């Protein structure tokens, strides 16, 4: 096995294209990523959620075992790899205390010599404290963080729909539940949705913890292009590699957002638009459209 040169952390924000980015780098010959995207190692430690993550992984382990019983031959290798990775991650979460060596060993298990980078794409890491982020930034000689920002209104609605789909008993219940979650969010509920879209707070923590060279901030609306893929590779020290531009992005359950809801969301999230415009000196075209509609 060749020397490990570095670690990639994909932070999100939630519902901002990290699954597509993970799939792209998973295929890059210079990267080694385990088949489970979100490891939730550091947030489970810091937020007291190890028990929850263990239960989630145990459920996933059972599901994979059942799927293997009836899977077609061409899916067996992929499912076996997922089951192996799930069991190894479960063992990592079950350790009695934090073990950074065991975490790094999990990331690197099965790595080939030409794969100089390993990674962990867990959007919830954007909520970690400055001391924790500093520790992560020092785990290897070269550590890089990727943060993807999405139009705040679109990100909010996608997150609302995701939560509604998880909570609904039947697909036909998703729209009504999504609308309830949205209005509760406007009344100060659903703090988890709010903090995952608070770009100002996320970037403030990253700025305090990282050297500027360690962080690349991207816009979701500009993510799906070879130009952006080449920029990511250059940032990570990788050779250019073709991006899967034709592959679909996780769109979630289609639920229409009303014009009234969009007007309220623009007003609630106006500070996020202003902060990003002030920090980067511009907004993507989709973001500008929402801002102009609100200002008009």
Question: What features would you highlight for this structure?
Answer:
296 residues, alpha/beta, Rossmann fold, five-stranded parallel sheet, 13 helices
Overview of this structure, please?
The chain is an alpha/beta fold and 296 residues long. The protein has a single domain, classed as P-loop containing nucleotide triphosphate hydrolases (Rossmann fold, 3-Layer(aba) Sandwich). It has helices at residues 18-27, 41-46, 50-70, 73-93, 100-108, 130-137, 152-167, 174-186, 191-196, 199-209, 226-236, 259-280, 285-295, and strands at residues 6-12, 31-32, 117-121, 142-149, 215-219. It has a five-stranded parallel β-sheet with strand order 2-3-1-4-5, with helices on one face. Helix 3 runs antiparallel to helix 4 (73-93), helix 7 crosses helix 8 and helix 12 crosses helix 13. It is globular, with a radius of gyration of 20 Å. The termini are far apart. 32% of the residues are buried. The model has no long low-confidence stretch (mean pLDDT 91).
